[in-house]
Write a structure and sequence with these properties.
With 139 residues, the chain is mainly β. 0% of the residues lie in helices and 49% in strands. It has two domains: 2-37, no CATH class; 71-138, Beta Barrel (OB fold (Dihydrolipoamide Acetyltransferase, E2P)).
Length: 139
C-alpha cells in the first residue's frame, strides 16, 4: 500500500504498510512483518455529498394589466426558456405555471396572475429572451 522511510537515532527504517482492516494494520519494518492493533479506530475521511433541498418557495405570479382583455406574459429577466407547459387554446387559472425560464443558473417558474385562454406563444424551448419580451398572450 504505502512505503515510508524513517531515521531514528541515526538508524534507518523502511516501513511498508501491507494492509489495513478496522483497528489492525499489517506492516513490514526492514523486511520483518508486524501486526499492529490501534487503540482507537482510524477515522476514514468521507467526501461530503451536496444535497439540495427542494424549494419551499411558492410560485409568484407575474404582474399583468388587469384592465386589458389581452394579458401579455413578459420575461421578468433575461434568460433561456427551459420548458413550456401550455399550448395555444389551453384554458388556464390563476397560479398555473406557464413556462420555466432559466436565468443565472436558476430555474424560474413563470405563473399566470389571470385566468384565460392562451392565444399566442411567442417563444420556443431553448430560445433566449430579453427582459420585458412578450412570451405568452392570454385572452
Amino acid at each position: 500500500m504505502k512505503n515510508f522511510s524513517f531515521k531514528i537515532n541515526e538508524n534507518s527504517y523502511g516501513v511498508k504498510i501491507v494492509s489495513h482492516e478496522d483497528n489492525t494494520i499489517e506492516l513490514e519494518v526492514n523486511g520483518t512483518s508486524y501486526s499492529v492493533k490501534m487503540k482507537e479506530e482510524v477515522k476514514k475521511i468521507k467526501t461530503p455529498t451536496l444535497v439540495r433541498k427542494p424549494s419551499s418557495a411558492t410560485v409568484e405570479p407575474i404582474k399583468i394589466n388587469p384592465s386589458s382583455s389581452i394579458a401579455k406574459i413578459i420575461a421578468p429577466i433575461p434568460g433561456i426558456i427551459l420548458s413550456i407547459n401550455v399550448k395555444i387554446g389551453d384554458t388556464i387559472k390563476v397560479g398555473d405555471v406557464l413556462l420555466v425560464l432559466e436565468a443565472m443558473k436558476m430555474e424560474n417558474s413563470i405563473a399566470s396572475e389571470k385566468s384565460g385562454t392562451v392565444t399566442a406563444i411567442n417563444v420556443k424551448v431553448g430560445q433566449q429572451v430579453l427582459q420585458s419580451e412578450v412570451m405568452i398572450e392570454l385572452e
